[in-house]
Amino acid sequence: MITRTLACGDLLNYLAGPVNSNGKKREEAAELVRGSREKAVDFLNAVAPFKLRDAKRRRWFYPRACLHIVHNFAEARTEVQDLILPIVRGTEDILLAGMRRDALAFITYYHPQELHPHPHIGLIKFVHPYAGPYNPGLGLPEEDDLLKRYAHLCNLNFGLDDPMDPKHARLIHPGRGCFKSQFFDCFKKIDQLARDLLAKGMLNGRSFPSHLQSIGVKPIVAYAKNGKPSYFSIVNGLENQSFKACKDALVVLTPDCQQLVLRGMLVRVDFTAVVWNEEINRRRAFMENLHEHGVDYYREFLGLIEKRGRRQSALYPQAGIFGPAVGVADFGWLKPITPQMIVPPSPLTMDL
After folding, report:
1. How many helices (H) and strands (E) does the chain have?
2. pLDDT digits (tens, 9 = 90+) for 257-269
3. In a 10 Å sphere around its CB, with 0-12 CB exposed, 13-18 middle and 19+ buried, how is residue 137 labelled?
């Protein structure tokens, strides 16, 4: 399970709608598993500034009034369907630490597709009952990315695939907005090229753009080590077109003349075998430590929950009265029960 916090977008319409982000019809209708759509709409309309209370302008307001969290699973739908509700409730408890359970309003839709099923959790960023603004504060250094720690503990306890496993280290991947069907065939060729060069010991960030031309992919823009964009020669009458230079990315032209943004370790001009081996070893060390010392990792997580609870109870005192506040005792179900097996060695490193 991998957890992401995203810009909210048109939360209610997209999450409940029949079409996914690639414009294709969903395999099955989205399921409302927590919250009430009607109450969410009524509350957002009530707190929106008066000039935003028509439907078109509310679409501008909703992303600023909501937080969007996604838990994406690598497992099949049948393997995780019974885990969706407890994992969603645990996510809510992280946000509610130090406040009573009805202090925040959530709305969660589950997309039960066969490949990568996932729930979308929407938090309305206002504290009840006085409707004051709420700042989740998940990026604060002292909270050390609680949601990612929570995901690692869920993966450990439920035997789920963890994104930090060395087998998931990716040399290159499409940038956001480029996970689209028209790019799938081209990206498969790019990925296979990278793997072939890796096997031959010829892979590095400086020469990779020139290798792309062997499969009909033309590099357009890449960032150099000094942080400045490097513009490659552009052919086929495209000299006068403007191309967006994305930092930490490589922009290429596919054989059918579409722009594709590539990201990942390989697009860095300083990428070498040493960089790749360091990343693999870092991931392996993390997974071994998590499996060997899962209880210690869990205790660190509880310490961060306790800090968050104290901070939020001080910031939102009205949200902690008239009922018990969410605290560390509510995460007892997350404690690792038995020591897990050590992660086996993985032959993923490159020869230097």
Report:
1. 10, 12
2. 888 888 888 888 7
3. middle
